[in-house]
Design a protein that fits this description.
This protein is an alpha/beta fold and about 525 residues long. It folds into two domains: about 30-235 and about 500-525; about 240-490, Carbon-nitrogen hydrolase (Nitrilase/N-carbamoyl-D-aminoacid amidohydrolase), CATH 3.60.110.10. It is built from 19 helices and 13 strands. It has helices at about 5-10, 15-25, 35-45, 55-70, 75-95, 105-130, 140-150, 170-175, 175-180, 180-200, 205-230, 255-265, 270-295, 315-330, 375-380, 405-415, 435-445, 495-500, 500-525, and strands at about 240-245, 300-305, 310, 330-340, 350-355, 360-365, 390, 395-400, 420-425, 450-455, 460, 470-475, 480-485.
């Protein structure tokens, strides 16, 4: 038997190409150089702006190019800890104030996210050299895309997906209607590995040139076809006037300590009366403003998430008022409620009740994905199924805030052939406007028009190609209301019909590349 891999490679039964791949895979890493470390520094700086609060779309394309160049020139003992620290530090910068967990859980989430981000780089270093050729450029993007997709199935949904960095690049974003969010991650990753293949092999290498041509022409074609879709096939249906409102300051809002005591049935009769009076004042103001918007021509009016903050015993009366108003004004009224049921194990019902022109409740949707932490612990869970209402201006469905971060949930809207999705939301300053920008991706993916009203954040309406139809930022408004003329018809996209086909293709591709990388060793044995 051969006593070493080199001796095995010299055996005539081994394919000639295998010897080269074995030698390449066992060749010592190139020594550190000033240029490699400069690439690491430049990549880290660009990484700060590749996602989140200070996102720059181009930085998301360039930062992994320089970081992968650095990784390919270092042993894993050097690059792995450095990249882990860099990823943790940049995530803390990108997502400052956005993560809804504190203390140990926050730092643990950063470490876990940092470790996950190393996987595509490790896969590239361990597999790409063994595979060689154009196929080697697929290792990094397939692994990165598969990881993005699998992570989206967790409790934080698609937060962290690389594709969100491209918000606003509408021609490029039309790929969402075909591949979903995962096509964007793949293109960025493919660009990264193609650039590095050309960088490593030089322009004299025909395989490297061909890999670059294939990658760059694909990206160009995606943007060209996206531009054509925007230019030649814009929404052409009639529009409906939609008004959305957020609650205004009414009196002194109860603090968290009072709410905690209320849920534990530990408030005095005076405090209970004071809370109910405040709650009624807010609800009455929301109803008054909904009536005003209807008089101005709105056919759909809805409130931001949980704006009617009421006790369970007051819910029926408020729904009756809303139904009466909807019948009087001949509108669809979405009452976004935070219903408190003291003494229960899960005392919060975060939901949207839609009253129709017939004076009946046509939809009673509960938030499917409460935010992990306190909200999830206290929220009543339902079946997580989207509902819809047939209206003279299309089929209307709804989600609530964090729900829109889960592409798989919004796939139900596409399956229901919804034309319009209402999205009552409630954010905070740190995720304004990032969170609403993320939600716009669901409109393009599923071919729906989406109207998102956000307390303490950006409210915006988007058509099914991602155009912003109206916007209002809570922190730059005094009336907290938005009016948008929204198309009454959506479209059926490839993604809405076939779902995460592309994500599964990259998972299959990752496994196939893994087998291809080690198949010669199996043949040898």
């Amino acid at each position: 038997m051969p006593t070493s891999i080199t001796e095995a490679a010299e055996n005539k039964s081994i394919e000639p190409g295998f010897k080269g791949s074995i030698e390449a895979s066992n060749k010592p890493k190139k020594s550190s150089s000033l240029s490699a470390w400069l690439c690491f520094c430049l990549g880290c700086v660009l990484l700060l702006f590749s996602y989140g609060a200070n996102n720059v779309a181009l930085a998301a394309w360039l930062s992994p190019v320089f970081l992968l160049h650095f990784v390919r020139r270092q042993r894993w003992r050097v690059w792995a800890p450095l990249m882990l620290v860099a990823q943790i530090a940049t995530s803390a910068f990108q997502l400052r104030g956005m993560v809804p967990v504190i203390g140990t859980a926050y730092y643990l989430s950063l470490v876990i996210g940092g470790l996950q981000s190393l996987i595509p780089f490790a896969a590239d270093q361990w597999l790409a050299r063994r595979i060689g050729g154009i196929a080697s450029t697929l290792v990094f993007p397939c692994t990165w895309t598969a990881l993005d997709y699998l992570t989206s199935l967790g409790s934080f949904g698609s937060w962290g997906a690389a594709g969100y960095s491209q918000y606003g690049e509408l021609a490029l974003l039309q790929i969402l209607s075909v591949t979903g969010l995962w096509g964007l991650t793949f293109l960025i990753g493919w660009f990264t590995s193609a650039c590095n293949y050309l960088w490593d092999e030089g322009l004299v290498s025909r395989p490297a040139r061909n890999a670059a041509y294939l990658c760059f022409s694909t990206i160009t074609a995606v943007m060209l076809l996206g531009g054509i879709r925007l230019s030649l096939f814009p929404p052409s249906s009639e529009t409906v006037r939609i008004a959305s409102v957020s609650k205004r300051p009414i009196g002194r809002e109860p603090d968290s300590r009072l709410i905690d005591r209320l849920l534990a049935n530990q408030v005095s009769a005076e405090e209970l009366t004071e809370f109910r009076q405040w709650s009624k004042g807010v609800s009455d103001d929301l109803l008054l403003r909904a009536d005003r918007e209807a008089q101005d021509g709105a056919k759909v009016v809805f409130w931001a998430e949980g704006n009617a903050f009421i006790l369970k015993q007051d819910e029926a009366a408020l729904l009756a008022q809303g139904s009466e108003l909807a019948a009087k004004d001949h509108i669809y009224l979405g009452l976004a409620l935070a219903v408190l049921n003291p003494g229960q194990n899960r005392p919060l019902e975060n939901k949207l009740a839609v009253a129709g022109p017939d004076g009946k409740i046509a939809m009673d949707y509960y938030k499917a994905h409460p935010v992990p932490g306190d909200e999830a612990a206290m929220s009543v869970a339902k079946d997580g199924r989207l509902q819809f209402v047939e209206t003279p201006f299309g089929r209307v469905s709804a989600v609530i805030c964090f729900d829109a971060d889960f592409p798989q949930l919004l796939a139900q809207a596409g399956a229901l052939k919804a034309d319009l999705v209402l999205d009552p939301s409630n954010d905070w300053r740190a995720i304004d406007p990032w969170h609403t920008e993320m939600a716009s991706f669901r409109a393009i993916e599923q071919g729906v028009n989406l109207d998102r009203q956000t307390s303490h954040g950006l409210s915006a309406a988007f058509d099914y190609q991602g155009r912003t139809l109206a916007a209002m930022d809570h922190f730059h408004s005094s009336d907290y209301s938005m009016v948008a003329d929204v198309p009454t018809r959506g479209v059926r996209t490839i993604y809405s019909r076939f779902g995460d086909w592309f994500a599964w293709l990259t998972i299959a591709g990752s496994l196939a590349l893994l087998v291809a990388a080690f198949r010669p060793l199996q043949q040898k044995r």
